[in-house]
Amino acid sequence: MTRQLEGVTAGPDRTSWKYRCAATALLFGAGLLAGCGSKNTSVAGPPPPLPVTVVQVEPKDVPLTGEWVGTLDGYVNAQIQPQANGYLIKQNYKEGAMVSKGEVLFEIDPRPFQAALDQAKGQLAQAKGQVQQAKAQLELTDINVKRDTPLAEAHAIAQSQLDNDTQQKAQSAAAVQSAQASVAAAEAAVENAELNLGFTHVRSLITGIAGQATVQVGNLVNTQSVLTSVSQVDPIKAYFSISDSEYLELTQRAGQASGDLLKNASAIPLTLTLSTGEVFPQKGRIAFVDRQINPQTGAIRIAAAFPNPGNVLRPGQFGRVKAETELRHNALLIPQVAVSEFQGLQQVYVAGLDGKAHVETVTLGPQVDTSWVVNAGLSPGAQVIVDNLQKLHDGAPIAAHHGQPGAATAPPANAAGN
Fold first, then answer.
1. I want to staple 131 with a disulfide (CB 3.0 to 4.6 A). Which of 7, 160, 179, 307 is the partner?
2. Is-contact 319 276, C-beta < 8 A?
3. What are phi and psi of 294, to 5 degrees?
């Protein structure tokens, strides 16, 4: 009994001893592994220089351009209105088609005007008949005067008879003049009736593109009605507004402050960029300069004329008008890809003589193609970094090589094995 109790009591101690031995062995093994790992670890060295492409900044003369939003309009826009009242009976043109000056676009019912013309012609014929009667009466009174003159001198007839003959002759002459005046009035009435009849054919006043008709056949129209519009679009005008300073710059560039952009318009060729981004192949010139600057906006309105063969451009389109406003001497240009913005400041990375990248804050001027003009912050000869900008920081070691913006950023061949 006693041995059995002793065996039961000793069992748990033996089990806990086994657990303690196993835990000791695990700790010893972990220590060995940790010791082996520490022997194979080495201290990391500095990162290799980052390969970058640099562009050297050199001063040069750069033409600066101004660009403005322009609205296209016809060189001449004519509203087609009738000069006669009546019912519209015919439309002779196709809407949106090219029409010529003098071409009949609409026809108005001519019957009332034809009747008025016939009546005027009848009155003219009546007036001419009255002239013939007055002339015949004048001839008769002239005969009487010639006959009675010697008789009155011979006292064969009373002097009063000759006086009556003379008075009748004068009245007949006045009647002839009155009849002739009636003929002139009748002729004018005929001419006016012919004009009114001609006005029933509504013609185009210019050569251009005819718009949509605003009335239909059968409508009653009058002289206040606008039937359609015709626009001359070759050349076509582009209206845009420029600031006061830009106007002065253009004036100086056109003719050394001559003050007249129109006389020297050929000295400032204009370029039109369409809404698709395509540059219109025809160059324009300044055709109109407003008489004053708008005091509310500080801008002056200008119109440019562009040749438009094939009538490709139409009124109402938008485009960007560009012109050279200044020739900047000894300007410094940097590629746009080299500029980064940080907290509202424009910055570039410059390759230093110490083989490291340095941040420079710059003040940018106008844009020239894919570059910026630098007003301040860089000196001629600076090596501006144009790639791998996201991997750079101030003082980062670099391996610079010269190239063009957008060139491959792979390291040089001699650096590949390092």
1. 179
2. no
3. -65, 120
